[in-house]
Amino acid sequence: MQTIILLTLSNIFMTFAWYGHLKFRQAPLILTILASWGIALFEYCLQVPANRIGSYQFSTVQLKTIQEIITLIVFCFFSYFYLNEGIKLNHLIGFIFIVLAAFFIFKG
């Protein structure tokens, strides 16, 4: 459970680092890059321990799969609430296929 919590928190930071600046398109690019790096530092401070802790329970493929599913969930909330962009049916269907792929990765 600790791995999932750390991965979720790290994904929140990374989503803001990657996409948060899109609300401030008028800001100079160099400033947005530096701000994104600053935010990403916190992501790494959570991601690295999450992977280290998780490696005792999950394979690296499983860890990456967990991270990608968490990324999709975090991104959906971020896109809807922060960027005010809706999630369309075709997006949900695509995400469902990715979750289905995760099922097969963990099926063994």
Write the layout of secondary structure elements.
Blueprint: H1 2-19, H2 29-54, H3 60-81, H4 89-107
Helix pairs in contact: 1-2, 1-3, 3-4
Number of helical regions: 4
Q: Tell me roughly what share of residues is in helical segments.
A: over 70%
Poorly predicted segments: none
H and E string: HHHH
* Ends apart, CA distance between termini: 20 Å
- Strand-residue fraction? under 5%
Which structural class matches the secondary elements?
mainly alpha
User: Sheet bearing the most strands, described?
Assistant: none
Mean pLDDT: 94
Structural shape: flat
Radius of gyration: 15 Å
Number of strands: 0
Keywords:
108 residues; mainly alpha; 4 helices; 79% helix
In short:
By secondary structure, the chain is mostly helical.
Q: What does the model show?
A:
The model has no long low-confidence stretch (mean pLDDT 94). With 108 residues, the protein is an all-alpha fold. The protein starts with a helix and ends with a helix. 79% of the residues lie in helices and 0% in strands. The chain has helices at 2-19, 29-54, 60-81, 89-107. The protein is built from four helices and no strands.
